[in-house]
Amino acid sequence: MSSPFGASEHSRSTPRSSPSRQRLSGSRSGRVNGHSRSSHRDSSANSNDGPSRQLWEEFGRVVLDDDRSFKRSLDVQTAEQERLHRIALDEALAHHEAVRQSAERARERVDLEIWREQRRREEVERKTVEEQKRRLAAEEAEREEEHLADVRRSQEQCKQQEARKREKEDVERQTEAEKQRLEREKAELLRKTAQEKEDADRKTREAAASRERELKKAQNPDPPPIQLQPKTNGVTPTTTSKAPTTEQQQAPLASAAISGLVSNPEQRKAVHQRYLTLWRRLKAFRIETEKQCKDAGFKNLGELKRSINTQVGMINKTDKAANKTYLTKIEAIFKQALSIAGPTVDIREYLPSADPATLAQATPADAQYPAILLYLLHQFAKRTIRQLIAEGGADTEVCDPIGIILVQVFARPDYQWREHSLIDLLWAKYHFLCPQLFGIRVQEGEGEEYFRRVTGLAAGFSAVTLRDFSKSRNRNPAPNTLWWESTARILNLSATQTQMTHFVILKASITDFVPRILQLFGGAGKAVIKNAVTVFPGKAAKVVPKMQGEKAGMAPAVMALDSLSSTLLLKYGLSL
């Protein structure tokens, strides 16, 4: 199809073309809308001014309309594209603005964090500086306090020296006055003794003279004395000299032991109360000594106490060499306590078994004893008792090495006062925990834990009191008569006075100590064992049946003691 603005050669040369096509071709080659055309077009227009012209004009309008529509569509597309571009630019600008604001906020947050970190560092530095200042001030105050404490300590020492000096002078004056008083009393006593002797001689002479006069007045002389001889089943045995048996040789020892048992319940209770008073006094003494050491700046008291507890807790029944090492370390602690210049106490208040005359003769200065050593000896006694209860209650053989160490410590002359042992510290705790060992009847406890405690204490009592000091240079702090007295007082109880505790005590104090009992007491010791094992269980009350069909019988503690004879036969070959 040809362009409407120019006619092709083919259209102009074709004779068959219609007039309208020719006009159309002519219109394409000429100007439109009344503009000048070629002369041929003008002549044609003039000759054909009819429908073809209208068609041509209409076509021109269509073409113009198409052109305008095309331009308008281009304008619309351009405007739409511009609008879209502007929208995209606005969105990009908004996004850029959002990013910029976000970056701004992030920058503000970073600035805030930096500011906070700076403030925190400044605060830490400020606190560090203040802490250093406070530490320096505290150190300065501590140094000042130590200086003041040294000054006060020096002043206190001077006061104590002056007080000791005055006390020494007072003691000397008192000693001199006491000496003079004793001399006067001695002279008075000698005079009274002489007077009493003279009066006694005079009375004796008068009585002899009176008897002589009565004899002269009597009509019948006195009959001759009758000699009584022991009889057996009506037969008078002949006197035959025999060599003394082993039982006869041991009789003096048994008699001497039994002679010490002559004491009534009131006397035993009085002794028991003295030991309970000592037990209470030791509690107050412990608190006071710890306070005095703390005030004096002595901080090793707790460490010494813990060392003693550690060594006592390691004592065992198998390693004797290790036990000697533990004893050496314990005595080293006591020697260290002797070398410490600490407070002192009047030891007379802690010796209830000492001779009252010896205590009365001692002056307050002579009776002073190192408080730290007394404190550690008390802690040693308490710790060994706890060890006896904890381990000896389950295995009584453990008690023997503990008893050896206990006796060896309290037998040391270095820890005694005027050759008197401080083992009363141990017995005070014993009187509190198990009074039945000393002939005191109290309300007994119940349960397995109670009887285990009694077992450990009784076995420990035998381990301490059945030691042989015949080859030792030291004096036995726990004489064997203590064991004899305790056992005999239990065996002498009536059936109504017995308690389960007594049966537990007898079994624990005999089972592991038969060789020692026979060695120390001989035949008398065997008689005591036989009485305890075969006779004493018969004093126990029968257990009342609690269920239908149950038979009356012995309590477990009594049965254990009653069956001990077979155990002794198997273990020691001892036939009762």
Automatic annotation (TrEMBL):
Q: Does the keyword Metal-binding apply?
A: no
Name any one Pfam family assigned in the record.
Answer: GLE1
Question: From what superkingdom does this record's organism come?
Answer: Eukaryota
Gene Ontology molecular-function annotations: inositol hexakisphosphate binding; phospholipid binding; translation initiation factor binding
Q: Where is the composition biased (Low complexity)?
A: 14-31, 236-246
Presence of keyword ATP-binding: no
Biological process GO annotation list?
Answer: poly(A)+ mRNA export from nucleus; protein transport
Basic and acidic residues composition-biased segments: 121-219
Q: Please state where this protein is localized.
A: Nucleus, Nuclear pore complex
Q: An example Gene Ontology cellular component term from the record?
A: cytoplasm
The alphabetized UniProt keywords are:
mRNA transport, Nuclear pore complex, Nucleus, Protein transport, Translocation, Transport
UniProt-annotated stretches for the region Disordered: 1-54, 121-252
Identify its protein family: Belongs to the GLE1 family.
Stated name of the protein: mRNA export factor GLE1
